[in-house]
Amino acid sequence: METRTKIALVTGGSRGLGKNSALKIAQKGLDVIITYKSSKEEADHVVEEIQALGRKAIAYQLDTKDIKSFDAFIKQVGDHLEENTGSRNIDYLVNNAGTALYSPITEVTEEQLDDMVDIHFKGVFFLTQKFLPFINNGGGIINVSSGLARFALPGSSVYGSMKAGVEMLTKYMAKELGARKIKANAVAPGAIETDFGGGRTRDDEHVNAIVAGNTALGRAGLPDDIGGVVAFLCTEEAGWINAQRIEVSGGMFF
């Protein structure tokens, strides 16, 4: 009997940590669905890279702030999967999509805070909720958090607070979905050299030096430091890891 290839869906998979995670998941032998907010061209390149690894891949546009669009998105994904696999289901959902906000508490606007709540909390909550009927029993949910949920740096009050909320939400997911043997874990990167937040960790030498000086391994993180951990959580070997916050920061501010 032929074993069914498992499928992971990675939001925000066109660049940065999402792209790296999608590629590392494909290297584990899974087929991958990615979403992108605006850059179809970047997403298509990721799809091509995954296909070059011998795995199936497809990209869909999704704005995780636009919760009203989720039903149509899930139907679109389900129609594609049913046609190509005979099932509308996926095995792993990686909630990675997000944006940065660097602003002191005194300057944060209500609109900025509402946007961050919609993207980083409501979006994660409701996309997961709506996908639950289509996640196979025994599958998993990986929520991308941040070291900023553990330590505080000026200007990240809203972002860090949203990620702290997602970490607690992850525990509730693990508790409530345990009967279906669905695992839920949070991966919390430290500061990573990507274009996230305007690329400040990667491109600002002063910021990069501060990060390196406060990290036990002596440098800022790279996407390759993170994607493999996310991919590991999409394997049978990680089947007994549940309700955990896994920080992947090289020992930053420990």
From TrEMBL:
<dbReference type="InterPro" id="IPR050259">
    <property type="entry name" value="SDR"/>
</dbReference>
<dbReference type="InterPro" id="IPR002347">
    <property type="entry name" value="SDR_fam"/>
</dbReference>
<protein>
    <submittedName>
        <fullName>SDR family oxidoreductase</fullName>
    </submittedName>
</protein>
<dbReference type="Pfam" id="PF13561">
    <property type="entry name" value="adh_short_C2"/>
</dbReference>
<comment type="similarity">
    <text>Belongs to the short-chain dehydrogenases/reductases (SDR) family.</text>
</comment>
<dbReference type="InterPro" id="IPR036291">
    <property type="entry name" value="NAD(P)-bd_dom_sf"/>
</dbReference>
